[in-house]
Amino acid sequence: MLKTVVVFYWVISFFKALNVIIKSNYQGNKGRTLVRKKTLPLVDNVGKILIFIIAIYFLMLSWNINVTAIGASLGLFSLAIGLAAKDTLGNLFAGIFIMADSPYKEGDYINLDTGERGYVTTIGLRSTRIMTRDDIEITIPNSVIATTKIVNESGGPHEKERVRVDVDIAYGSDLEKAKNILNNIALNSQNVCKDPEPRVRLRLLGESGLRIQLLFWIEKPELRGFVIDEITSEIYNRFNSENIDIPFPQRTLHIKKDT
After folding, report:
1. 127, 116 in Cβ contact below 8 A?
2. Using CB atoms within 10 A of its CB, is residue 246 exposed (0-12), middle (13-18) or buried (19+)?
3. Helix, strand, or coil (residue 256)
4. Which pLDDT belongs to residue 254?
5. Is the dihedral angle over the CA atoms 90, 92, 97, 99 positive or is it negative?
6. By the 8 A CB rule, do 229 and 239 touch?
7. Is 71's pLDDT higher than 70?
8. Quick one: pLDDT at residue 235?
9. Share of the chain above pLDDT 70, in %
């Protein structure tokens, strides 16, 4: 009975210590914490489970119960469960690693190698759910995501994203005039960020023309398709009105006649 009381005393003490550690990490400043906030609930639950298992072990020792036989039985049972639920356990451990590593968070706009693209709505232990631009929710097993290249377009200090639009103009065109037109188109668009400012660069002396590139920033990744359509349409119309030719590949064929 005395050993049982001591075990309960230490269990309560360890639970309180765990709560203090979790609370201190949650209130940590400037990122100086042992555990990320996203994984604090997971660490809390795992810690409590471990304390509970250790307490059961010492209670059984206190009452002279044979732990070896029970441990062997539990080991065989765990092995059978592991083989039967291999895929589920794979998703579970992958979910734990995703929460610990945090390659993305809820609300981020991500692209996967498998082609899925959208906002992360839920990160669970078994799967991750994303909402596509077509308002279709896709559920992806965490084991798939864990082995997939993830492009987090919302990562970094802000959600702004730089867009590049390449345009070819014919040799002999007024290069500075074309640059000014591209820059003004970006500055006059309400969907293009004014800070950082748009830029235009000459990138290539191509086979059929000069390749210039318009670089600008948009506020959110999901605007990329809409803004590119707006900007490229305006470029085409302005170049037509300003008589700036957009070249296409041409070949001259020489036919040699045998005499």
Report:
1. no
2. middle
3. coil
4. 83
5. positive
6. no
7. no
8. 95
9. 84
Give the integer Cα–Cα distance in Å for 15 and 18: 5
Q: How far, in Å, CA of 169 to CA of 182, rounded?
A: 12
Tell me, rounded to whole angstroms, the distance of Cα 68 from its chain centroid.
Answer: 46
What gap in Å lies between CA 94 and CA 83, rounded to an integer? 17
Q: pTM surpassing 0.70?
A: no
Q: What is the mean pLDDT of residues 160-189?
A: 93
Ranges 99-108, 172-181, 249-258, most confident? 172-181
Asked if the peptide bond before residue 196 counts as cis, ω within 30 degrees of 0, the response is: yes
Give the integer Cα–Cα distance in Å for 164 and 187.
15
Element (H, E) at 243: none
Integer Cα distance of 25 and 117 in angstroms? 33
Burial class (CB in 10 A: 0-12, 13-18, 19+), 116: middle
CA atoms of 136 and 222, how far apart (whole Å) = 15
Cα angle 10-15-17, degrees, rounded to a multiple of 5: 90
How does residue 259 score in pLDDT terms, banded at 50, 70 and 90?
Answer: low
Give one DSSP letter per residue of 139-208, joined into a string: EEEHHHHHTS-EEETT-SSSS-EEEEEEEEE-TTS-HHHHHHHHHHHHHH-TTS-SSSPPEEEEEEE-SS
The winner for highest mean pLDDT among 2-6, 82-86, 103-107, 163-167 is 163-167
pLDDT single digits (tens) 80-117: 655 555 666 677 777 777 777 778 888 888 888 877 78
Cβ distance 233 to 198 under 8 Å?
A: no
Rounded to the nearest 5°, which phi and psi values hold at 236?
Answer: -60, -45
